[in-house]
Amino acid sequence: MKIVDIVATAFRNAFRSRLRTSLTVLAIFIGAFTLSLTNGLGTGINQYIDDTVASVGVDDVMTVTKTNEDEPADGGPAEYDPNQIEADGPPGTTTSALTDDDIETIAGIDGVLSVQPAKSVLADYVQYDDGTKYQLSISQFVPGMKVELASGEQVDLDAGDPQLVLPESYLEPLELGSAADAVGQTVVLAVTDATGEQVTTEATVVGVAEPGVITMGGAIPNDVLTEELYDLQTNGAPESETTRYAQASVSFDVDAGEEEAAALKDRLADAGYTGSTLEDQLGTITAVIDAIVLVLNGFAVIALVAAGIGIVNTLFMAVQERTREVGLMKAMGLSSARVFSLFSIEAVVIGLVGSALGVLAAIGVGQLVGSVSGDLLTDLPGLTLIAFEPVTVVAVVLGVMAIAFLAGTLPALRAARQDPISSLRYE
Amino acid sequence: MREAADVVSPLLSVSNLHKTYGSGPSAFEALKGLDLDIAEGESMAIIGKSGSGKSTLMHLLALLDRPTSGTITLDGTDTSRLSAKQLNQTRNSAFGFVFQQFFLNAQASVLDNVTLPLKIAGVSRRERTARGMAALAQLELDDKAGNKANDLSGGQKQRVVIARALINQPRVIFADEPTGNLDTATGTVVEDILFDLNQRQGINLVVVTHDEDLASRCDRSIYIRDGLIAAPAGVAA
């Protein structure tokens, strides 16, 4: 018997007892539907986090701070360190400052491709065309930083002129018009230098950022603009002040793999620094979501296993019903292996139909939920609550087919072992 | 011993055939050392009461089962040496089966039922259809090809079964009570078809029956009693 004929026959056989097969398909459908939805939920949320990560920086950059060695292990108060400065994090968080010496040390560590001190800049206001002045926070510079843009381009890291990407929310107050209009305009930025004098500089708006969770509210400067603002800000300050940085960005070779990244962290730790990648910083969130999705998937898989038992049952009945047919085909020379494949493919067909329908229904529901959640979760723009990756969808279908095949083996074996004579005996 | 020098070497030859079912004290010896030759083109009836071993003999001859001891030679080949695959191929290509019960797939079309052996043999769909239609035409059933097997009368169903047995152009047709489920008139038609095939196409007939009339139309009848041939050579007219 040809493979094509076996598959065609198995397909036809699967729907000979329509009601029975439909019920089994329904059970598979429910399992596959649930699994696809929970997977989709995980994919959607993680995709959103990934997008957010991309808006913070790139994956080949490590943020390095000086390890606070004075911090007692028992969680008690740390001794005062005159070298501490304010750091990112909750108000009051301090960290030991990095000096130019530290930067040189870090640059010398094996695996560090380049190091750049993060120069924190505080702008007083932003102004366009002599209009009203508005407060503006300048995001900490991270090389390769990307944001979702409403218009324009990301800042050019190598550009010689000062550029920045403005958040969309500034367009109206600054009377810049639409996002497209704003691109190419020049705005005035003011900082207060160390002597208390307010000085201004100009920068070109190259892009307009869509609101996102992490970059919300901040403007993203390019290298030249940061330098310029920093120089203006530190003008007149003693040198010890101008060469103290809260953190530094270290770029490393991300292709070298996770082990190499971990080794680099170890080497940094040995030198007295703490390095953390973006994954480290957002990893906890992703891990929690993954764990929740895993538990939900577990329930869906339980449903699928129950459905698999339904397949076993359905096929045992089919084998029972077709005892004589199987006996006749074996008498006519059909090998046991072919009988086995006839029934196991029938099981796979049931799995295929059930999972394909389940996945399609899940995608449909995902679209529906997506349009509803867009209205409900306006604070999280760009979030697709349930997203589907082709690979996962195909994996669900193939996985269900594999479960169905396993479920089918038992009945198929029984059919394959049938003795043609006792199957045909009627005396 | 049979030599190659024999004028007509038998198609099927059986010697000292034993078949025991079960083991130990509950063992049942269905065949107790039976010898039989079936010549090429011969029609033969196997007659006997229930439990005489006649069905067992037919199953062994049709290579559906293996004997406990003794040899079955088909066309000079000792069938005990054939692999499971070769046995399957032999049954598929050399034998046709007609049973008392029709064993038709009620939901499938008449054509699909008839071409089942070809499908098993791996023949392409186009050729299956062509040969199936030819076999149905031979039995004057070509106008029913698209009907479901369930919608046919008993006589028509048995003709479909014969068409199915014929489709592989077999050398032997094994018929187990072929007319048992039919009324006399239809039974006679089916018998006519079988003997016509035997005479015109030289297909061997091995018929297991209770029916003396049917047996008498065969070239030869053997009576099985208690696992042995009781009345040899009941040669018919």
From TrEMBL, chain A:
GO terms for cellular component: plasma membrane
A GO MF label: transmembrane transporter activity
Chief location category: membrane
Domain MacB-like periplasmic core, first and last residues per copy: 21-237
Source superkingdom: Bacteria
Family of the protein in this entry: Belongs to the ABC-4 integral membrane protein family.
Organism: Promicromonospora soli
Protein keywords: Cell membrane, Membrane, Transmembrane, Transmembrane helix
Compartment list: Cell membrane
Protein name: Permease
Region Disordered, annotated ranges: 66-95
ABC3 transporter permease C-terminal domain span: 298-420
From TrEMBL, chain B:
Domain of life: Bacteria
Occurrences of domain ABC transporter (ranges): 12-237
CDD domains: ABC_MJ0796_LolCDE_FtsE
Entry-linked InterPro entries: AAA+_ATPase, ABC_transporter-like_ATP-bd, ABC_transporter-like_CS, ABC_transpr_LolD-like, MacB-like_ATP-bd, P-loop_NTPase
UniProt keyword terms in alphabetical order: ATP-binding, Nucleotide-binding, Transport
Cellular component, GO annotation: membrane protein complex; plasma membrane
GO molecular function per UniProt: ATP binding; ATP hydrolysis activity; transmembrane transporter activity
Name of protein: ABC transporter ATP-binding protein
